Amino acid sequence: MALWRAYQRALNAHPWKVQVLTAGSLMGLGDIISQQLVERRGVRKHQISRTLTMASLGCGFVGPVIGGWYKVLDRLIPGTTKVDALKKMLLDQGCFAPCFLGSFLSLIGALNGLSARDNWAKLRRLWPAVQLANFYLVPLYYRLAVVQCVAVIWNSYLSWKAHRF
């Protein structure tokens, strides 16, 4: 609980920095999970450069882009009712997600040879439900952290998919 309170204080004091660092940390964690639990590489064969690449993508691309989008979305559709959450999810998934995912998967593909086509069906099953709950239940400054926590599993999959031999 003390860790959570410290996170909340930091988020209140420096929302942008904390959100970006959270995104990077959780993307790095997703890669660690991929390498250690899925691929079972062990500590000696862990590719730290790969983990740093994923964390850097989180801090330099995912965190700023999604964090900024959530601010814009909250200005476009203020409110937290069920209808507001549904509107946000539809706008997010109908307009933002295709552009963002195309950019992200192209970027990660350029770095790792990942095919965007292979992932599209899985993305469509996961993210609309996550975003509907996120926009309805979660305050603005916590949304990126919630999405990134769910994304730890997704990032583990992406990292595994991008780096399997």
General description of the model:
This protein has about 160 residues and is an all-alpha fold. The chain has one domain. Helices cover about 85% and strands about 0% of the residues. It is built from six helices and no strands. The chain has helices at about 1-15, 15-40, 50-75, 80-110, 115-135, 140-165. The radius of gyration is 16 Å and the shape is globular. The model has no long low-confidence stretch (mean pLDDT about 85). This is Mitochondrial inner membrane protein Mpv17. Belongs to the peroxisomal membrane protein PXMP2/4 family. It is a multi-pass membrane protein.
What is the number of strand segments?
0
- Total helical elements: 6
Stretches where pLDDT falls below 50 for ≥5 residues? none
Overall mean pLDDT stands at: 87
Query: H/E element string?
Result: HHHHHH
Spatial separation of the terminal alpha carbons: 41 Å
Number of domains: 1
Global Rg: 16 Å
For the sheet with most strands, the description reads: none
Query: Helix/strand-derived class?
Result: mainly alpha
Strand-residue fraction?
Answer: under 5%
Basic shape: globular
Q: Work out the helicity level.
A: over 70%
At a glance:
With 165 residues, the protein is mainly α. It has helices spanning 2-13, 15-38, 48-76, 82-112, 116-137, 140-163. Helix content is 86%, strand content 0%.
Name a few traits of the molecule.
globular; 6 helices; mainly alpha; 165 residues; single chain
Produce the secondary structure layout:
Blueprint: H1 2-13, H2 15-38, H3 48-76, H4 82-112, H5 116-137, H6 140-163
GO molecular function, one term: channel activity
Main location: membrane
Keywords: Membrane, Transmembrane, Transmembrane helix
